[in-house]
Design brief:
The structure holds two protein chains of two kinds. Chain A is an alpha+beta fold. Chain A has five helices and five strands. The N and C termini of chain A lie far apart (about 55 Å). By secondary structure, chain B is an alpha+beta fold. The complex binds flavin-adenine dinucleotide (FAD) and FE2/S2 (inorganic) cluster (2 copies). Chain B: This is Xanthine dehydrogenase family protein subunit M.
Amino acid sequence: MTTEITIELDINGRSETLTLDPRVTLLDALREHLGLTGTKKGCDQGQCGACTVHVDGARVLSCLTLAAQAAGRPVTTIEGLSAPGGELHPVQAAFLEHDAFQCGYCTPGQIMSAVACIREGHAGSDEEIREYMAGNLCRCGAYPHIVAAVRQAAEMAS
Amino acid sequence: MKAPDFDYVRVRSLDEALAALAAHGEGARILAGGQSLVPALNLRLLAPEILVDIGGIADLSGIALADGTIRIGAMTRHADLERSPEIARHVPLLARAVREIGHPAIRNRGTIGGSLAHADPASELPACVLALEARIVARGPSGERTIAASDFFRGLYETALGPDEILVRIEIPAAAAGERFAFHELARRHGDYAMAGIAALARDTGAATLRIAYFGIGSRPMLAAGAAAALRDHGASEAGAAAAVRALGADLEPQSDLQASAALRMHLAGVLLRRALKDLFPDAAGGREEEIA
Ligand SMILES: Cc1cc2nc3c(=O)[nH]c(=O)nc-3n(C[C@H](O)[C@H](O)[C@H](O)COP(=O)(O)OP(=O)(O)OC[C@H]3O[C@@H](n4cnc5c(N)ncnc54)[C@H](O)[C@@H]3O)c2cc1C
Ligand code: FES
Ligand code: FES
């Protein structure tokens, strides 16, 4: 039998103490234990990017990160990108403006990945954006609009 | 939750990690970046009793140059290699290869130690450390030992590491003046594991020190010693290249899988070799591009 562990997670600036089975991934901790369902589960295998969040400011796949591995490190999810009721993050606004989605399932992951992509300095051209956003799949094929949104947000940030 | 039951311990030091391995024997597994281990657990390919998370051991990561050798801690992330000016300058082959590993989010967590210990035959870094004549340093109950990269990879996901050992760092001779490398891989989609790939290194301007390593071909990364010998004997001329491609037949043991047949892989190995020779010896005729089809 597995021994449960108690961990402290720092999610969007809030400290959360959880007692969990050690098998729980960061993705399941967010969705099932903290009610933060903005982060999506597409494949649970690292193949689609729908579960992308930031840990220590870097984009990671929450489905391939155990909750325990994120203990004590700042985690940002789509819910934490802008203050509730406040202004949208520029990347969120650019996604809206460019209609960079259809069903929206991949969108939180795309946006978290795009924010990191711009911060890493990998959004200099459409080609570079496509390369560095390639881990985020969109079943609806909204890619051209996603690239346009990321491009605009990157230009605004520079 | 899909993974089988396991316990979890986050250790703070190597000694603590070694003690956990000693206490649990084969039932323990090191958790580094988790980018191969977590999917394997979720698919229930493995059922360890306990995961020993080494992510909190600070002195396992980092890149340092001393006495002409680059030392890379096992927990150094792929993204750290990608961004490191030391790696770009002193081990440019690694800087080039690491960009082909998965996608940025995977590179932010995956580690060089994990990649080598996991020994996926389609992985880029194992072939690179073969070409680079790297030394792999492991720590076990009786202290450290150094394993030549050419003795490290034993078979499919199999290495020279014992169950009570931890890979602690990789040591690579820094690039000499005039050193050149070539790196190519063929994958159906960019970012996927390679169907076939090559990492080659010449420590000087001639073919005398050439080392050619392949990944994605057989059950483990392999050095093509016969092909390198043919190029030493004949030079990087068209005759040398043709002899080298012929020698691959004895050097490699290509395997068939859903992605490619053994015969296709053998053909691709020749194509990759010619591409590599074109990069390494641009003035010689041996790099003639061959049609893939
Ligand atoms: C979608 C996807 C695509 C990928 N594409 C590629 C690709 O194209 N090329 C590629 O090379 N890789 C690819 N990877 C794998 C990635 O590179 C992994 O990071 C790497 O293979 C394992 O490193 P890790 O640190 O994540 O190790 P983990 O997953 O934590 O561990 C892997 C194995 O190594 C053992 N181990 C780890 N560290 C040590 C150590 N220091 N000492 C002893 N044993 C240790 C573990 O016990 C485990 O058995 C991909 C992964 C995903 C999810
Ligand atoms: S759910 Fe994590 S990558 Fe698909
Ligand atoms: S908008 Fe539907 S998957 Fe991307």
